[in-house]
Design a protein that fits this description.
- With 91 residues, this protein is mostly helical.
- The chain has one domain.
- The protein contains three helices and two strands.
- A two-stranded antiparallel sheet has the order 1-2.
- It starts with 15 loop residues before the first helix and ends in a 10-residue tail after the last helix.
Length: 91
């Protein structure tokens, strides 16, 4: 992933709303990509993430979602520690 450049490079943070608006097209693009994979593709495609490890695409997507949920939990705990009202995101 040495050649990957995030769209956020050089972008300044202004507000959560601004970030959500900026991120929305990338989110929709990612979700559409996931929807387009067949069950067979999720089971058969082996990908090579930046770490060089090999895994099935479906496993990689599940691990990515889990990884992001861990960060969401960390952020919620930081908000709790400083006494900020936080959203209830777990059902």
């Amino acid at each position: 992933m040495d050649n990957y450049h995030t769209p956020w490079d050089g972008r300044f943070y202004f507000s959560v709303d601004d970030e959500l608006i900026f991120a929305e097209p990338y989110r929709q693009n990612f979700l559409q990509s996931v929807r387009n994979f067949s069950g067979q593709q999720l089971a058969d495609i082996i990908i090579h993430p930046g770490s060089g490890s090999e895994n099935f695409l479906g496993n990689y997507l599940l691990r990515s979602a889990y990884h992001e949920s861990v960060h969401a939990g960390q952020f919620i705990s930081y908000l709790r520690e400083i006494g900020v009202e936080r959203p209830f995101i777990w059902d």
